[in-house]
Amino acid sequence: MPQYFNITYCLDLNITKKVNYAYIEDNKLEEGFVGYRYRVECTCRAKYQDPPTDMSFLKKIFKAEIQDLCDHATIIDYQDPFLKEIINSIEYMGIIHQQQKKAQFIQASSKIGKLCITPFKPSSENLAKAWHGAIHQRVAANSSDLDINFEKIKVWETNNWYTEFSVDL
């Protein structure tokens, strides 16, 4: 009977998100930007092999699909009206065109720095689902002969609160 083990890789991200509210002085609510420190755990299930297989390709996939796109970026929904204010109109039209083709994440530069533009509200639940889909496809394409499956992703918002996404949940 084959034996399996889990491999979990963690990424720490600094992300800014535009929210419809932000606490300011005197506990008033206002639209604004909020910084987040996320920890993202990516877990794969792999068949035990002797000699062991080099799994470094998994780290490259996780970094490319999450860290390279989103770390130190402002994540913003492409339908947010503020997007028009921070990028030029030609880039904006290109982003709209790409999003209509169902792109999950578009990386761009703006007046406020690095952007990660999404076709959804950038909640931890939506990010977990989108990252899972992108990683699942790449792991499957790069490990068909290794019996490795991308199982789940956890997006930690605080030390005691996370969102978990798996196709089996």
Automatic annotation (TrEMBL):
The record's EC number reads 4.1.2.50
Pathway given in the UniProt record:
Purine metabolism; 7-cyano-7-deazaguanine biosynthesis
What is catalyzed by this enzyme? 7,8-dihydroneopterin 3'-triphosphate + H2O = 6-carboxy-5,6,7,8-tetrahydropterin + triphosphate + acetaldehyde + 2 H(+)
Top-level lineage group: Bacteria
Q: InterPro entries, per this entry? A: 6-PTP_synth/QueD, 6-PTP_synth/QueD_sf
| Family under the similarity heading | Belongs to the PTPS family. QueD subfamily.
Give the protein's recorded name.
6-carboxy-5,6,7,8-tetrahydropterin synthase
Organism (species)? Microbulbifer variabilis
